[in-house]
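Table 4 source record.
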Amino acid sequence: MIKKHYKKILIVAALITVGILLDLAGLLDAEKMLNLVRGYADQWWLVLILILLQIILFTFALAGSSFLWIVAPLYPPAMATFILAAGGTLGGVTAYLFSKRLTDDWIEKIENSRTYKLLHKQDNFFALFALRVFPAFPHSLVNYSSGILKVKLSHFIPAAILGISIKSYIYARVIYNATTSVSVEDLLNISTYGPLILLSLFTLAGVFISYKFSKADK
């Protein structure tokens, strides 16, 4: 039991170290990273590196979503969507698997989140999709909550692919088509995030109605 406790402490220390090293390398600064890779956008291997870096960040609940600001200015919306969806989905799966290694304190925080409580009641594709597509929703909560609850991967993976793809395409198109620099405020324009919120809310409403009907049938 003691060995297991120390093992988890070492994991937390490793997470902190990874975060510090990535920050020192400039990989957590989207602007620095964009300037670094801009000259290699035509190289096929850059796509693999961008996906791999997202996987690493999402696995350790770091700022994987910040890669939107690196990928979207470099590639057309369809290609940017592929890169972001691949990194987000694969990173989600590795975070899902990694969640079993979390310390008790981290697990307790996740279990107290609304995301965990929703997924605890509704382990299905639609609940996961609604959370994925909602603007600015933390993917790490979805990943780790799903792992702790052992949500079915047959629900988890398709919801991640579809939800992240839809959201990424909408944001990537805004950034790529901008003639001037885009800020967070531009992405927070109601015309950009409004459809995502409606899609998420309609999906959650469907989940809620289905849940009520299933309870009434019992």
